[in-house]
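Q: Convert this sequence to structure tokens.
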Amino acid sequence: MKNNQFEKELIALQGNMRNFAFSLTLNRDDAEDLLQETTLKVLDNQDKFKTNINFKGWVLTIMKNIFINNYRKIVRNQTVFDRTEDLHHLNLPQNSGFETPEGAFSVGEITNSINSFADEYRLPFSMHIQGYKYAEIAQKMDLPIGTVKSRIFLARKRLQKQLKDYR
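A:
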């Protein structure tokens, strides 16, 4: 296919490409970005197109592959690998263990209990709940990591003691 004819067919296909991009992303701005990225990739790989192949199918396959690769990249970047040695200290339980909303603690009561702690316990405990690792907390607070772990442990025990009547 000649250069001019290739570009004319690509321009004629822009509407179909835009619709397909929107069906993949479900977002107008992301669809426009995907459309532009696909158009550039198609133009860069014009020499790989064989004339006996369905042009529309070839272009839309490129678009789908770009979308899949971008999606995988986003998922890969959002995946967190925790290499902490003390795995038994890591995560707080993900569910409350209560069957009904009436059985769960009030967030306000828990927050008030945490806020009643002295700063030396409240700050590392709050940072831990927010997702900071022990090493990050130790670095930000300029404390040994053992001290941070101890303070978080003691704050957790104190919180359990303050809220034991709710069990």
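DSSP finds eight helices and no strands in the chain.
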